[in-house]
């Protein structure tokens, strides 16, 4: 049996602007996803996905047929639109992977198990960790596989491959990532709160791209500068100021209010959106007392910085 693992991700700076070349800061998470591959019935892929509680959340069989992956329907999945959508996405990934390494799908079949360390509703990278794991298995370029399946900037692939914070930037249409010396002394005053709703990344990207009158060059330069300043920042108050400026810039670019203004206007510390605005996690500054503020409002999934980030 072969086994592959990839890390989840948090994009601390550069959401949306990363698509246009802004230098961004990404943090790999301790939680990730494992892919286990063993030989199976010839010309068949038997796929089972387990959640963080080791419960099956997706199961399917596909027939390998010279680059086509035909879904073998079962009574449990035939009338389930959600499962059918996942099956179609899996077909798309495998077909793209086949085109880059067809030899591995010849002469045999596979039993494949995936295991998540985190709730797949959290937006920590269920898709990106899967793409990176499949790319490791097949020895193909994960960025190209991402491009031909889910799309996006690719920062989550870079985070999946790293055990340290990274800067990520698209230059001349190529992804460039470097290890970042980001280990804030004030990390005990940083925590992450799940907003009890999942954001659709593709919809968030489409919304950003549809906004008129964006000065992309200026936005890219400003966000890149803030990323550099945040990496060097050793003062919590300066860190909060930089994040507030970042929030204001992105708010204007996507024509949406800051999440702090929309949901938590009375919060005494600072809140920053992460990834697609309006869902998944936020970053908040504060202490245990501030964590109670969120619990009192029904937000009970809260992680300290060191609990979540590698």
From TrEMBL:
Gene3D superfamilies assigned to the protein according to its UniProt record, in alphabetical order: 3.30.230.10
InterPro entries for the chain: GHMP_GYDIA-like, Ribosomal_Su5_D2-typ_SF, Ribsml_uS5_D2-typ_fold_subgr
Keyword set, alphabetical order: Kinase, Transferase
Domain of life assignment: Bacteria
Residue intervals passing through the bilayer: none
Entry annotated with the keyword Transferase: yes
GO molecular function: kinase activity
Protein's UniProt keywords contain Transferase: yes
Protein name: GYDIA family GHMP kinase
Lineage: Bacteria, Pseudomonadati, Bacteroidota, Flavobacteriia, Flavobacteriales
């Amino acid at each position: 049996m072969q086994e592959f693992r990839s890390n989840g991700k948090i994009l601390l700076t550069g959401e949306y602007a990363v698509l246009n070349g802004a230098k961004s800061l990404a943090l790999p998470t301790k939680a990730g996803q494992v892919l286990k591959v063993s030989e199976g019935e010839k010309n068949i892929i038997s796929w089972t996905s387990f959640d963080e509680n080791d419960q099956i959340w997706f199961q399917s069989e596909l027939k390998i047929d010279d680059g086509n992956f035909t879904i073998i329907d079962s009574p449990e999945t035939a009338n389930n639109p959600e499962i059918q959508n996942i099956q179609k996405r899996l077909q798309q990934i495998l077909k793209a992977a086949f085109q880059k390494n067809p030899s591995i799908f010849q002469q045999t079949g596979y039993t494949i198990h995936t295991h998540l360390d985190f709730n797949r509703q959290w937006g920590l990278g269920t898709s990106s960790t899967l793409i990176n794991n499949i790319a490791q298995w097949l020895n193909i370029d994960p960025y190209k596989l991402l491009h031909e399946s889910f799309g996006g900037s690719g920062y989550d692939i870079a985070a999946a491959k790293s055990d340290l914070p990274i800067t990520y930037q698209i230059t001349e249409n190529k992804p460039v990532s470097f290890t970042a010396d980001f280990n804030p002394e004030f990390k005990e005053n940083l925590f992450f709160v799940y907003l009890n709703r999942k954001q659709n990344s593709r919809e968030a990207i489409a919304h950003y791209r549809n906004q008129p009158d964006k000065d992309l060059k200026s936005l890219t330069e400003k966000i890149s500068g803030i990323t550099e300043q945040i990496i060097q920042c050793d003062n919590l108050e300066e860190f909060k100021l930089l994040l507030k400026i970042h929030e204001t810039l992105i708010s204007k670019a996507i024509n949406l209010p800051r999440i702090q203004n929309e949901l938590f206007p009375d919060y005494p510390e600072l809140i920053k959106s992460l990834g697609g605005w309006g869902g998944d996690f936020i970053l908040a500054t504060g202490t245990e007392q501030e964590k109670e503020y969120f619990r009192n409002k029904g937000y009970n999934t809260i992680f300290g910085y060191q609990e979540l980030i590698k």
